[in-house]
Queue: 2 jobs
Job 1
Amino acid sequence: MARGGIRGRGGMNRGIGRPPYKVKMFLPRHPFDLALCESSFPRVKPAPDETAFTQALLKRNVDLSPTASEQTAILNLVTKIQTVLDNLVVAPGAFDACQLEEVRQVGSFKKGTMVTGHNVADIVVILKTLPTREAVEALGNKVKEDLKSLMKSEVVTKGEQLTHTTNERGIEISNSFACVRVMVTTLHHNIRKLDPEIHLDQKIMLSHLAAIRHSRWFEENAHHSSIKVLIRLLRDIRTRFEGFEPLTPWMLDLLAHFAIMHNPSRQALPINVAFRRVFQLLSAGLFLPGSAGITDPCEGVSLRIHTAMTLEQQDICCLTAQTLLRVLSHGGYKHILGLEGNASIAKEMSVWDGVVVSPLDKAYENPPEKKDGEEEDEDMEAEGDESMETIEN
Amino acid sequence: MTFITPEPPTNNNSFSPCQRQSDPENDEKMFLFLQAAAAAAAKPAQYTGTYQANATGYQATYAQPAAQTTIAAQPTTQAKQANSTTTYSGYDAALYSAATMYVAQQGGAAQQKSGGWQGYKKGGIGAKNMRTKAPPKPQQLHYCDVCKISCAGPQTYREHLEGQKHKKREAATKMAASVAVTNQNRAGNSLRCQLCDVTCTGNDAYAAHIRGAKHQKVVLLHTKLGKPIPPQEPEIIGGPRNGDSKDDEVDEQPEPDIQPVGQDYIEEIKSDDGKVISFNCKLCECRFNDPNAKEMHMKGRRHRLQYKKKVNPDLVVDVKPSLRQRKIQEEKMRRAALREEFWARRHYNMPEDEDDRMYWEDRRRYEEEYMEMCRRGNLGPYPRGRPPFPGGAPPYFQGGMPMARRTESSDDRHVMARHSEIYPKEEELQSIQRIVSHTERALKTVSDQLAESTKPKEGQAQQPPTPQQPVAAPAANAANATPAAAKPVEAPAVVPKPESENKSAEQQQQQPKEDGRDNQLFSFQQDRDANRILKGVMRVGHLAKGLLLRGDTNVELVVLCADKPTLALLRKVVDLLPPALKQVAPENTYTVTINAAEAGLTVVGDGLTVLVQLTSPIMREQEAASGGLDRDVLARGKCLQALAALRHTKWFQARALGLHSCVVIIRILRDLCQRVPTWSPLSSWAMELLAEKVISSVPGQVQLSPGDALRRVMEAVASGLLLPGGPGLGDPCEKDSPDAASGLSAQQREDLTCSAQYALRLIAYRQIYKVLGMEPLPTQQKVFRRDRSARKRRRSGGEQADSESDSGKMVKTEGTETTTETPVK
């Protein structure tokens, strides 16, 4: 209300001096990115030899890749479940609790960015009907039955006994080697018909739909194997450094793609350069408020992916990257990769070749009036979209 | 008429439905007739009275002549009448029906056998009973024909008649006419039990009704009373009224065979012993005890609608176009269409109205700016011939409008506020300007004197010249006679490309000037006198770059000599300078001291110090050869430094001055380097290079506002630009561009990066004032935007004029121009 008033007044005031147009246009700016302005910063001395670093990166990647037995286990399970679900799409027969529209594999299994020790594959099932809890339950039972009949000829060892659970995302089917998450969602035009009391959560349904878009985008844009290697390394780093926890797999995908492909030549950068660039970008505040960040290529409206993090998380993520960048530049890559040492380097003072690397403090503070200002600004950003939407409706 | 007379009293009431629905004219007769009949039957007085009251009440209210509707709403007789060939008028119909009933009564069981529903009823037991047992007191059965119920006694009957339920029902019957109309509109196949006057929505519902206790009771009662029982076939409501098309209608719209849906959503509620006692439909939130009811519910329309809404949006549920719904639907469609049209129109017009206007607005402003830039002497939007971004701007940046970010952000306001705090005061600038100008003019005098003295004896530059002040002074004074007019307001606008020092010196010759306030070389040469030893003087360092901050007291000048500057020459100049200064500025007192360690001399006055260094381009060329040869020559390192300072100044004027926000940010950074110990190791030259490179390397040549520019510099350092292993800062003013920041140790680089990283996040989280070392400004009140910024705007406008086009001159003599030029931001 107040804002409307202000706007009106502003309009009048501005009407005197200059034509009225939007007072505040939020234009996020892309942060400094050395790879994009290398011509301004020619190397004054030859770049240091990074063979050892590159080797360490590749070795770490090998360590992180799933083992052959893991791959077999997950592939077996996925194939079976995919078969069962495909049958349900093609010939539902007597199964009428829900109608299946489409079954798709998504996530790290599909993308080929799995990390060892986390043998989980994701499948998204799009229902034509609405995803009531009963329907999911019924689907779970049906899959269970069909799997049983599919496997009745096999000899099932103890470890391969399947356990089925249902949760708010869908069904989880696992044995002791692998796990397949069957995530349920519904057609896009059904989403707004969802009622939280009867159906599965709308946000989760949307996220499952987004997962499909993500895997599609990945297939088309990020098939370069350097990207996959980098993603795997980043995923590992994310689990080891607390500050990176808020980064979602999708953010890591986009970040890795950006770091490798987004350069003037449009050719993939070498892995050591790209790895360092990730930290340079994050240190330069790629994921800080006011930065253009990375725009989600799978959302219609321009959405900066880092806004999914809270302001505090953005700060912590940035400061962690900043500390690690300095460690990296003093030759501490083994600690960052987890080849030696531990994750304390992000939080404690460390000495490298006589250079003291000290950790950073948070810049984010949360006094009430600051918070207001912050929110006001966020509102501003969102406001444009919001008003657009109301106009359209 | 023969049929009428002997009417059994118990049947009196059975007329009422017929009578109610007959014509008003006939009502009168009917009424009389009924009265007669009642009298004949010797009914109890109060009974008749009640009835009469009813009848009159009816007469009064029911004034609508509706012969047609009578038939429609007359369930008991219609079936028969439809079969008969003649059409009866209302009155005759009533009589006829009464007669028929009577006959039927007499006919007893025989006739009732013809009805279809004796299957249930074992053929008119009630009638038999009545016949056998109850002829003496037939009034024991009190039957309300409206409600189709019997009462145990007169008392309860009376109460019933006065009760709510009866009244309601009576009213409903009165409304029968309008109901019929509504029914007509209802296309769905409703089935109606003629006996109970109950409308059912489908075959199943009808069957359930026929099986139900209520219907059985009515049948029993009717059989008992010996009243005619209409055929079991349901009357179909909603078809066309004319009888012949009725059958087709039924065939055309057969009851669809509906599959029950949503079995999964009906939970069975079991009693303790595991017996199912009731069902609960989770979709519709209703419960039923009967499995049949459950089945019915699952086929029912309401349930199917819920199922469609909550489970399967594709389920087809036939629409039930009741009048009201249809109206609502139509209204909805109409509104939707209107809205659509509105938006279509709006969308069509919008580019014209909104987007276009904004676009053209931006465009206009851009062009204005461009023209302004050209007017001030910059040759184009990118005057410095910066190489375009390799490979073109990446698509990420193409969306952004380069000119869009013009409104001041909070960061901008803070930076500009801080900038105005550190920017020197007018008086300071003037006093610095004064001492520098005096020194320059005095040096020129000295140069002239030296030149005079060497002229007669060529090649003997070393010899001290005889003072010839009286000769030189008038000339110098004459040259100074028009200082106010010739004040180089316009001159600095031309930012020349970096050129060789000699050439630019020659250029300056064409325009004689009295000092070096345009920050270009102030040449002493007049008519190509090749022998002049002191060729010219130039301001260097912060003074020439316009980077002086408040409180700065040291400024530097460099005097170019024709040959290697020697100690003897320096001494000579130191000797000659004080009288020259006295002559130039008689009212000021300056002390001149020799500073051989810096290869120059210092002029001190007004608390300010001017360092004048002597150097020569030759110092560079002869390199190592000169090493130990000439002991008299001034310290080579210092001379080279002075030369470098000259080049730095030229570079700065060429690159940084025209760069939007760059000078402001360099001033801010200079302040930072002075304030924060972590930053002090960063040399001024390295810092200038860093800022210029970072700000000029914005992809897409976007101009940055001051706040953004500062943030970008911090981003660059935070991303490890200065860290070991980084690219380093190539020095464009030296051979092979070495690292300008090579003096930094690894730890210093680390600390600088660390500090910048923290500063960057402080900026991102709106604490830029902490980086700038100032108090936070009050948050901007948009309502009072103009008032608030009036003071600041003038100032920042003046600054921007400086930084964008001027060569950083220190004296803002064009105060009036500044105010008028204030850009409307």
Note: Residues 97 and 724 of chain B are 114 Å apart (CA to CA).
Job 2
Amino acid sequence: DDCLTQRMMSHPQLYIPGQLNLYFSKKAFFKCAIHSCYSSLVLFFIPYAALHDTLREDGKDAADYQSFALLTQTCLLFAVSIQLGLEMSYWTAVNTFFVLGSLAMYFVVTFTMYSNGMFLILPAAFPFIGTARNSLNQPNVWLTIILTSILCVLPVVTYRFLLIQLCPTINDKVRQARATPPPPPRRTRIRRTSSRRSGYAFSHTQGYGDLVTSGRFLRRPAVVSWSPGFPPVGRATSGFSPMGRSAGYSPTGRPQSSKVPDVEATSLQMYRAIKDPPL
Amino acid sequence: MGKAKDRTGPLARRPDNSAFKQQRLPAWSPMLTANTVLPFFYLLALMCLLLGVWLLLTVQSTQELKLDYTDLGSCSECYELRKNVSYAEQGCRCKVEFYIDQTFKGDVFFYYGLRNFHQNLRRYMDSRDDAQTVGRESQLKNPSTYCEPFIKDKDGVPIAPCGAVANSMFNDSFSFNYQTSSGHIMPVPLLRKGLTWYTDKNIKFRNPKTGNQTLAQVFEGTRQPLYWQKPVYDLDPSDPTNNGFINEDLIVWMREAAFPNFKKLYGILNRAGDPFTHGLPKGNYSIQISYNFPVQPFQGRKLVVLTTLTWFGGQNLFLPIAYLVTSSLILLMAVVLTVAWWKFGKDGKNMKE
């Protein structure tokens, strides 16, 4: 996803974090350890305090050992799943299925292990019978789970957001640039004299013959203005990006020869096009 | 590059050019931008605040009374008596009085509480035999070795129910009395059934099959745990269906508590007759206690707890207060982030390459 060949070639600064060992160093490990300590304390003490002196709605036991264990486990699962969701940069159908699926699987396995059938087969091995049914229908159990998830995940979100605002890394900048394309070019830039803004000048690469012949550029939405005579600014890139990759898919784009309709040029290419001096 | 190629030659083993195999699936790429994060934080702070206030009001509407009777009044003599194990066979009764100044409206639940009794100790929790208490014939006279040393008595007769958990069952009993305004003392009727989880009473604990024998005959060849005064088939003389392993007090005790300070349900107020139809009226009450359970060896305390309940449970103020605190923390963070965004990140100032 962020090792897209295209992007790495056009933004060599993306190699810097690897060279400086930014993401796997003692400092990174220490931050990780702090986060783990904090999460562990939250995941134990919040369920402890919430269950400490509590009862079910019908007066029966709610603060027993098995309910406490189940509550702590469930809090952990939810906190971890939400954290995982935050870490995922690209939510494809497959990713979403597996994350939500593991959460669902946890409940399936829990209810199976705590069911009557398993207990009657091997009583000594499945002593938690009935705990899931009796504990997870209590509103204060779910309120505890929500509170724990909030307390575990929000510090991470805060920290990341602050970091993006105060000192964004090259990865953040590139992602931001991809997501919010810069404003469209000014319409007065119709200078027929500089027709060599197009990639045609760089004939040592494959060029855009197929693009022109396919007429694909004609179907582009009206973000970019162009005048007849030379291709839209969006296609004008340096010769180092011979393949027209699209922005909407991850991580590799479309190969250049297949005819996919209605795809805007990479916003990155448009970005670069503005910056390049006329050739 | 397309699909139209033959499957021979140097490019024969190339994977299909499908979206799935070339990792080109449509994806949503969430980003932490200001216009998603900041409203989310403010909204979350508001919701936590509302939730906290609502829960606080709910919890405040419960009423609770806790009475530590370990050495209160005449029970101090029983406390001294129970310090000496040789007098364990000797009964001791004491009386404790209390006053309720505001009527307990609705259903009232009676609990006995213990402090500093670690039912969550691992070796203690292992010392039970679930196969025996589910009524398996093979385990009745041959309990699991996990119950050691509470498995056989000195004559080699197996114990039913075996293990330390059953052996240490709480055996104080209470009878509550209410003094009416005319000075007449009347007993407070308690329902002593319906105290357990449905799954515990009906599935986890079952008596061995009786057939045409009485329960006492089924348990022949076993004996009661060493600390008990009555055998397991005679725990409740007033109700024959509440004997054996399915006795409600036994089941309630066998569900080990998570923490050293806990309370377990003893009874529910029977609101069938006057003056208890609306709850516990205010006035003077007294409890006659049959004091058996010794707590001095582990520096514990014994309590009686009376409480009313709501959908949220009893009087546990932690969750409402935690929600209110969380809400204010989130609001503080949201303000800090807004300031950071305004000064540094607005309009992409920090994104210059």
Note: Residues 116 and 300 of chain B are 5 Å apart (CA to CA).
